[in-house]
Structure formats: C-alpha cells, structure tokens
Amino acid sequence: MALADIYQPGNTSPLDDWMGIVVSLADGKHTIEELIGYLKKHYPMPPENLEKTLHSVLERLVDGEIVRLTDEKVELPYYLASPIEELDIEKAKKLMNEDGYQVH
After folding, report:
1. Bridge partner residues of 23 (DSSP)
2. Contact residues for 37 (Cβ-Cβ < 8 A; gap 6+)
3. Are 31 and 70 in contact, with CB atoms under 8 Å apart?
4. Residue 64, domain member (yes or no)
5. Is 103 inside a domain boundary?
6. Based on the structure, what is the number of domains in the chain?
7. The pLDDT value given to residue 103
C-alpha cells in the first residue's frame, strides 16, 4: 500500500505493511479500538507496545492531515473512498476543490 498524490498519480509514498493496514482501516467506519483488535488478531508480529505505537502513528497521520478522527462514523468523500486507480481523477479533483481541500 502507498499514499498517492492525485495531482501526480505516479508519485506514491510506500507504507510499511502494518501502517498500510492502519490507513486502510481509517475508512470512517472503524474505531481505534477496532483497529487495535484487528492488528492484534491479524498481524503476525505487531509492534511492541501496540496501543502506544498506534496512538503515536495516528497522531502523526492526523498532524500530516492524512487522516481525521471523529466521534461518529462518517462516509468518506468520493476521492478518499477508493484506491486512486479506481477514481475518475478529474471528478476527484473537482470534488476536492468544491470541498475546500488545500494542496500543501
């Protein structure tokens, strides 16, 4: 799994396997507790101090504006709900612009 830049789809940033799981489950439907439970059950060698590590990772992802944490389940916008390979790039850019998404 990798993070992709919609303005340069060929420009990706690969993620470690377990970080990819964290990002893929940041889908607006899973809680942090569910994420921890999933990693404990399905990842062969979760990092030591999993919960502390996960909270640290989530903090960095939030600070980097890669994920947002909410108190309630949310439906992700079109441009975040599917892998970049499945998106209509022009539609995604238009919707991002309408939503006020800022390019850093």
Report:
1. none
2. none
3. no
4. yes
5. no
6. 1
7. 65
